[in-house]
Amino acid sequence: MNAMIAPAPSARYRIAHTTLYRYSTPVAICHNQLRMLPRAWNGVQIHSSEVDISPTPTWRAAHTDYYQNKVLTFAIESLHTELKVSVVSDVTVNASPDLSAHPTEWKTVQQAQACPVDDVTLAASEYRYESPMVIVSAPLADYARPSFDKFPRFMDALTDLTKRIHADFRYDTRATNVTTKADEAFQLRAGVCQDFAHVQIGCLRSLGFAARYVSGYLRTIPKEGEEKLVGADESHAWLSVYGGPELGWVDCDPTNACLVYTDHIPICIGRDYRDVSPMRGVAIGGGRTSLSVSVDVSTVES
User: Fold this and answer.
1) How far lies 286's CA from each of 74, 86, 88, 153, 258, in Å?
2) What pTM did the predictor assign?
3) Most exposed among 185, 189, 199, 237, judged by the fewest C-beta atoms under 10 Å?
4) What is the pLDDT of residues 128-185, one digit of tens each?
5) Is residue 228 domain-shared with residue 211, that is, in the same domain?
6) What is the helix, strand, coil percentage profile of the chain, to 5?
7) Does residue 111 sit in the same domain as residue 249?
């Protein structure tokens, strides 16, 4: 986890995300998909977004997936020992309304999602169910329930659960990997932002609420006395829960025990990490592979 500064009403960012694969023997053919391009939603305004791929792809094509994420698919059909993908985006994030004191009660939200009567709630209901990396279970429901027993208001209960996960789980980059599922991270009580988000999504779904995974970036500052290192930032993950027609989708970050404002830069949404993996694909050849990732999030004067 990194230090955060107080969120602003709006903030403009330059995001540079570079992925470099090195291979011990040449790759003959590779096909890949990227989900690193920002989308204009949830208060995000896109000024520019550019992708540079080396070697130059044989072909590339863009499309929008089921969750309305921007996807770039490309293939390289010539021998190569390195693959470098750089994505540079310029975006403005505008603050959502402060809903922390909203009076809507969680029982109202829960009942409405159990039997949707409007199109928006019906569309959100697909996020109430299990997904490949997030199960619905009694242990997850039992863990989440005290927050909802304690607070009748939805936002109060959600905030309490977010803070409890932050307090009860250890941030440990060695405890899990990208294939770790929510129930495994829950048993470990440890993991990274992906795991914290998966656990809270599982908790909410296990109580009947619609919750989805959000990938993106987080504005950070170095510790006092330290200089910010270019490229030392990281991708981040949090979650979004549907609070009914009055609240809409509310984003929260259990890794940092907070609701989401302009410090968070959303990129993709899905049921869990598998739907939003930044880069995935297949290759013929390559031998041993090494991967390095550099992320830099910097503020831009508007």
Assistant:
1) 17, 20, 27, 54, 42
2) 0.93
3) 189
4) 999 999 999 999 999 999 999 999 999 999 999 999 999 999 999 999 999 999 999 9
5) yes
6) 25, 40, 35
7) yes
